[in-house]
Design brief:
With about 300 residues, the protein is of the alpha/beta class. Helix content is about 25%, strand content about 30%. The strands form four sheets. An eight-stranded mixed beta sheet has the order 1-16-17-15-12-9-10-11, sandwiched between helices. Strand 7 and strand 8 form a beta hairpin. Helix 2 runs parallel beside helix 3. The protein is globular, with a radius of gyration of 19 Å. The two termini are about 20 Å apart.
């Protein structure tokens, strides 16, 4: 199985940040919270990893527009606004433009730490001078899909949430990418991959950003540890004869980057290329501390 270049029993773990943001900043963190700027609005959200003390003055926190207060259950809670932001407002990262809003959870429609993936995906696509097909599973509000489309790929975007698909389409329009080929599908990721396998469909790039737990549009149950190996096996059969990349991101799971490295590596037999793994982080402006937001493993042909 050690055909993948640099595949190691104990792989090095890389910490990736996204330094090119202008519309987002992690201003400060501490006492189980983080102070963030999304465009022109300052937001406070829970962050259990921030066990340290805030570095910024308390007055900066006091002037936040809104704060998400956790409630009962893993996803319980609500927003408390000092100065309520608009229903939605625009942001941008490089050429991508997108909408954010205070949703029913603590999320706003963008995971800023993933910008490093968007850049990497774009570079993988732009390196080749041929048509590229990309499949994005669990695609959420489509920023990875838009990055791939902007780089010249034909993208199939799959998510179980009709709201997320609508949001992604709005982001496509806002980015001025309406003419770029993106196929939008409200579907269960596992069932879609099974159908594509039967159709003998193939993709040059795969983007997987699965939740820890979720439900498909018809109530299909997704459990990360139970179903991820089967999904990767099915996705392996969807790769084209000359694949370019695979990127896997995991949030809120009791695993490690090493786990993702070896799990993805098991399905890369015969592909060559380079496999890496690590954590996606955001760098705090006030004290220079890093917060780990997600785990990742990604493979590229070059």
């Amino acid at each position: 199985m050690a055909i993948v270049k640099n595949l190691q029993k104990t792989p090095p773990v890389r910490l990736l940040t996204s330094p090119d943001w202008t519309d987002y900043a992690l201003l400060d963190s501490g006492d189980g919270r983080k102070l963030e700027r999304f465009g022109s609005h300052v937001i406070i959200r829970p962050e259990v990893q921030a066990m340290w003390q805030p570095a910024a003055d308390s007055s900066e926190w006091a002037h936040a527009d809104a704060e998400f207060k956790p409630g009962p259950g893993e996803n319980g809670g609500s927003w408390v606004c000092r100065k309520e932001p608009p229903a939605r407002w625009g942001m941008h990262y490089r050429e991508l433009k997108f909408w954010v809003m205070l949703s029913g959870s603590r999320h706003l429609g963008v995971f800023p730490e993933q910008a490093t993936h968007w850049d990497w995906i774009s570079a993988c696509i732009q390196r080749v001078k041929r048509p590229v097909k990309v499949l994005n599973l669990f695609g959420y509000t489509a920023l990875a899909s838009l990055a791939a489309a902007a780089a010249g790929a034909h993208v199939t975007h799959v998510d179980a949430s009709k709201k997320a698909i609508t949001w992604g389409r709005d982001n496509q329009t806002l980015s001025g990418l309406e003419e770029r080929p993106i196929r939008w599908l409200v579907d269960d990721a596992f069932k879609f991959v099974a159908r594509e396998t039967r159709r003998a469909s193939h993709y040059d790039g795969l983007i997987l950003d699965p939740p820890k737990f979720g439900r498909g549009p018809k109530g299909e149950v997704w459990e990360f540890f139970k179903l991820m190996p089967d999904l990767l096996g099915a996705c392996r059969r969807l790769l084209s004869p000359k694949p370019l990349f695979i990127v896997l991101t995991a949030y809120a799971v009791t695993a490690s980057a090493v786990t993702l490295y070896h799990t993805l590596g098991e399905y890369l037999d015969g592909l060559g290329g380079v496999l890496e793994a690590g954590e996606l982080t955001t760098l705090e402006a006030s004290g220079g501390r890093q917060i780990s937001n997600a785990l990742y493993a990604r493979w590229s042909k070059e």
